[in-house]
Write a structure and sequence with these properties.
With 103 residues, the chain is mostly helical. 46% of the residues lie in helices and 0% in strands.
C-alpha cells in the first residue's frame, strides 16, 4: 500500500496543480462561466464515478423538495439514446440511464 501511495503522489500533485490553474482561470474570468436565472446545485466530478454522488443527490432532493421545485439533470450513464429526455413511468435504463431511473 505504501508503494502505491509513493507511485501515485506525483500524479496527485500534477492533478492538483492543473485544477488550481483551472480554478484560477475561472476566477480571473479567462475561462467563461455561465449564470442562470434559477439556483443551481452541481454535485460531483462528472468524469469519476463511485464517490457517492447518487445518494447525495437523493438526500438533497429529500431536503429541498418541500420548499422548492426540484429537477435533476443527468447525462444518463448506460443509456443508448442521445439528447434530452424527460423521464416518466415508462422510462427504461436503455432510454434514460440507470441513475435517472433510480431517482
Amino acid at each position: 500500500m505504501k508503494l502505491i501511495k509513493i507511485i501515485l503522489l506525483p500524479i496527485a500533485l500534477i492533478y492538483g496543480i492543473i485544477m488550481s490553474l483551472r480554478n484560477t482561470l475561472f476566477y480571473w474570468k479567462i475561462l467563461p462561466s455561465k449564470k442562470y436565472d434559477v439556483p443551481v446545485i452541481s454535485v460531483g466530478n462528472l468524469s469519476i464515478g463511485g464517490t457517492g454522488k447518487t445518494p447525495h443527490i437523493e438526500y438533497l432532493v429529500h431536503l429541498l423538495q418541500e420548499q422548492y421545485s426540484v429537477a435533476i439533470l443527468s447525462r444518463g450513464y448506460k443509456r443508448t439514446t442521445k439528447g434530452f429526455l424527460l423521464a416518466n413511468e415508462e422510462s427504461t435504463i436503455q432510454k434514460i440511464g440507470d441513475e435517472p431511473l433510480q431517482y
